[in-house]
Design brief:
single chain; about 220 residues; mainly alpha; 10 helices; about 70% helix; globular
């Protein structure tokens, strides 16, 4: 007897949240004898891991944080293979949003997580690759021009939902992108204040005194 849709949705959301809650930055640095939460901004993302001087750990963290968003969306896709496309897309969007929430508020770290940019990108690429490409391209272009990581993330987050609509992406994924964008802005409140004051550090510039400057 097949599971009802609401049960599959619940499994997709719970699975997505648990995938998203995996703190790759904490796990990879602890294996190397480092507590990332005591370094730099204390953030668990790849930007702060890079401050340890270990590019390999930063890359692993970035790939893990990106991949867990993609895995959550992929899990929902598999669970919902038997339903119609619109329902499947809704489930994928819910799972992706749950994975993003898991990264920001991981159950394993007392709900104190990262800022979500890598998971944002991974989720978008898995759900609708054109939106992933647009977000990554926007980030790279903004970073090339202004050399500020947080500004690049904020611009990409602000533009992705309108770009999704302009390129006729499924509405469920556009809503998911908007949901993640709002949370990215909430998590970057300190960065926004520093940007307005002209105090946000640029990419490649070491400034240990600046707290929570990660994207």
């Amino acid at each position: 007897m097949p599971l009802p849709d609401w049960t599959i949705f619940a499994l997709a959301v719970i699975g997505g949240y648990l995938f998203g809650s995996i703190p790759f930055g904490v796990v990879t640095t602890k294996l190397a004898g480092i507590d990332i939460r005591s370094i730099g901004s204390g953030n668990i993302g790849a930007t702060n891991v890079l401050r340890t001087g270990r590019k390999d750990l930063a890359l692993i963290t970035f790939l893990g944080d990106t991949g867990k968003g993609a895995m959550a969306v992929g899990l929902a896709f598999v669970l919902l293979l038997s339903v119609d496309q619109a329902t499947r897309q809704t489930g994928m969007a819910l799972a992706g949003g749950a994975a993003f929430l898991g990264h920001l508020f991981p159950v394993w770290l007392k709900f104190k997580g990262g800022k979500g940019v890598a998971t944002f990108l991974g989720t978008l690429f898995a759900a609708a690759w054109p939106m992933g490409l647009l977000a990554a391209g926007t980030w790279l272009l903004t970073a090339f021009i202004f050399r500020i990581s947080s500004l690049s993330a904020l611009v990409a987050a602000a533009l992705i939902a309108p770009l999704g609509l302009l390129t006729d992406q499924p509405h469920a994924f556009v809503v998911m992108a908007l949901f993640m964008a709002v949370l990215i802005y909430l998590r970057h409140r300190d960065n926004i204040r520093r940007l307005l004051k002209g105090e946000e550090p640029k990419i490649g510039k070491k400034k240990d005194a600046e707290p929570a400057a990660d994207a």
